[in-house]
Amino acid sequence: MKIGILSRNRRLYSTRRLVEAGRQRGHEIQVIDTLRCYMNIVSHRPAIHYMGEILTGCDAVIPRIGASVTFYGAAVLRQFEMMGVYPLNESVAITRSRDKLRSLQLLARKGIGLPVTGFAHSPDDIQDLIKMVGGAPLVIKLLEGTQGIGVVLTETAKAAESVVEAFMGLKANILVQEYISEANGADIRCFVIGDRVVAAMRRQAKEGEFRSNLHRGGTASPIKITPEERSTAVRAAKVMGLNVCGVDVLRSNHGPVVMEVNSSPGLEGVEAATGKDIAGMVYEFIEKNARPHRTRTKGKG
User: 2-89: what fold?
Assistant: First the structure.
């Protein structure tokens, strides 16, 4: 098969592994810089141009679209879908998962366990908002933040009010969430491919830190997850409409709660922690499922 990888940086571990694994399985792999694509949007024979040439012959595309280029990346992916190319993850599903508020609302609608979350616009409602989510300590998140950036833990109601007021003063959209203290600075990254969790790792925040992101100094180790955690991760992926994703779960006193569903999960941490060939599993899924014009995201709400 001829498979394109939408990635801005071919030197990233995840991109390199996908190239290596694809070629080992006999596929023709091309890394495509998302922002260098430009599109001819027409009813008949839509096309993508790339560095002066028309991209043709792709059987499938693997989107590795960074959060900062979600809008343009999704537009490029939609164009591939219009051309009949099979997307590993569909554009609708990616944009759905990238919108933190929308994704939480969709997960809540389907009964997926979540931390108590509040969202407001007016500074006049701050005190009631804090009470609504259970009071301090609580976590305040920028909707546009990634990799733990823009996430603040406030230990008192007064501190929470000050942080919320500051963000609102900057016209930033924020979520206010209960702090799951029993998680002890750890979460579980469940790597979902299709309808199963193929690998799971425990990410532990470094001492004095509550964010467990590996980019922020967290450490990763393999973990055996419970049937409930496995079911929660798979259901969350299906709600988003994602074929491949990382579902971040916290162990709370009232069961597993989903923090985020990541449509472009990194491979380095999970492959190192578990020793599994995740990149190879991605291609197994593509080989079984890739068909022309097979783009049909369910539940586009």
Answer: Rossmann fold (3.40.50)
**Could you read off the pLDDT of 51-100 as tens digits, one per residue?**
989 998 899 999 999 988 999 999 999 999 999 999 999 999 999 999 99
Fold equal for 2-89 and 117-179? no
DSSP the chain: -EEEEE-S-TTSHHHHHHHHHHHHTT-EEEEE-GGGEEEE--SSS-EEEETTEE----SEEEE---GGGHHHHHHHHHHHHHTTPEESS-HHHHHHHH-HHHHHHHHHHTT-----EE----GGGHHHHHHHTTSSSEEEEETT--TTTTEEEE-SHHHHHHHHHHHHHTT--EEEEE--GGGTTEEEEEEEETTEEEEEEEEEPPTT-----GGGT-EEEE-PPPHHHHHHHHHHHHHHT-SEEEEEEEEETTEEEEEEEESS--SHHHHHHH---HHHHHHHHHHHH--TT----S---
- Could you read off the pLDDT of 227-248 as tens digits, one per residue? 999 999 999 999 999 999 999 9
Instruction: Please provide residue 70's backbone torsions phi and psi, each rounded to the nearest 5 degrees.
Output: -60, -45
- Kindly tell me if the per-residue pLDDT of 155 is higher than 50: yes
Reported CATH class of domain 97-113+182-276 = alpha beta
pTM of the model: 0.88
Write out pLDDT tens, residues 18-42.
Answer: 999 999 999 999 999 999 999 988 8
Distance CA 66, CA 138 (A): 28
Which CATH fold would you assign to the domain 117-179? Dna Ligase; domain 1 (3.30.1490)
Handedness of CA 280, 285, 287, 288 (dihedral sign): positive
Q: At residue 190, what are phi and psi to the nearest 5 degrees?
A: -95, 120
Domain boundaries, the chain: 2-89, 97-113+182-276, 117-179
